[in-house]
Amino acid sequence: MLRLNRYLLGLVVWLSFFFNIERLDLDVTDPDLFNIASPIYVAVVAVVALGLLIPQRKKIPSWQMQVLGGLAFVVARLVSDRPAWGGAYTYISLFELSSVLFSAALAHTVGTLCVEFVEMVRALLFVDMDGRVYQREQAESSIKREMQFARRANRPLSIMVIDVDANAIPLAMQAAEKEVQQVLAKRHRLVAVTRLVARSLRRTDFVVDQTDDGRIVLVMPEMGKAQTISTLARLNQRVQERLGFSLRFGVASFPDQGVTFEELAYQAESALKPVLHERRGEDPGEAGSVTENLAVVEVPAVKQVVRTSERSG
Q: Which terminus of the chain is more solvent-facing, meaning fewer CB atoms within 10 Å of its CB: N or C?
């Protein structure tokens, strides 16, 4: 993705050179040496357009784009009234063929990198997680409602902060690029984790997007201590299997560690530690499992969907 600017610049420079090559005053004896046939210019425009547009519809290998470029050259030569071979025309035809094929390859590379860039942006912006992941401002009313019912109905609710293990982000690059790449890599991994977590949660749970701060926050109504521990182990195992790295979790609850969402989130963040897998045959609620590594407390709250009418009152 970071190569896009270089390839895009190369494409612009190459096309500028190709479409102005006949303007060059090289003081050659043969005035037709750079007399490129007009259909070849059309062929270059066509293969560049196809190279930029086709990757947006379907991913094709570079050799297929080269075949299209060759076909475009053949068609251009067929409609041209100038000889293709003989004398200086042979060298002109070889240059034209090389130009069409090179333009096709370069445009295909730029088109592919553009698609990768768009996919990366979509991945980082949660465009496919509407209704499951909320910005802090959007989640404010839901958080306030859950905290109010935590006090009223005395029902459990857990606040979980998730962070990516820093050791899971390998870096081998120059110092000038290291900081930017590290931020991008961590953000990308957090987004991937958020997608996986959001699709694994219950209907009443929701995610508060704080990836700009390097973390995500889960609000889980009706989630008690034993359930939280089991959820931690299950989520971490799923992330390790599908994404290949470990997570750090911190859990806090009302009222032992705070009476507001900000206090609970701070306590959960302070308790961030790598989650441990539960031992076989061991009760997830027993000490010596994940509970030794996490500050787990329970927040009273109510279900987000089932008790809507009661909350409005």
A: C
- The backbone region for 223, taken as left when phi is positive above 0, alpha when psi lies in -120 to 50, beta otherwise, is beta
222: left (phi over 0), alpha (psi -120 to 50) or beta: left
- 14-25 pLDDT tens trace: 999 998 887 765
What is the mean predicted confidence (pLDDT) over 94-98? 91
| Model pTM score | 0.52
Query: Which contacts qualify for 269-272: CB closer than 8 Å, 24 or more apart?
Result: 269/161, 269/215, 270/295, 271/161, 271/295, 272/161, 272/163, 272/248
The answer to whether residues 221 and 147 touch, using CB atoms and an 8 Å cutoff, is no
Per residue in 239-280, pLDDT (tens digit) is 888 877 777 888 877 766 777 788 878 878 887 766 544 433
Amino acid identity, position 36: I
Q: How many CA atoms lie within 13 A of 242 on its CB side?
A: 14
CB-CB neighbours of 39 under 10 Å: 19
Q: How is domain 133-312 classified at the architecture level of CATH? A: 2-Layer Sandwich (3.30)
Residue whose token pair is 């989130």: 265
Domain residue limits, the chain: 4-125, 133-312
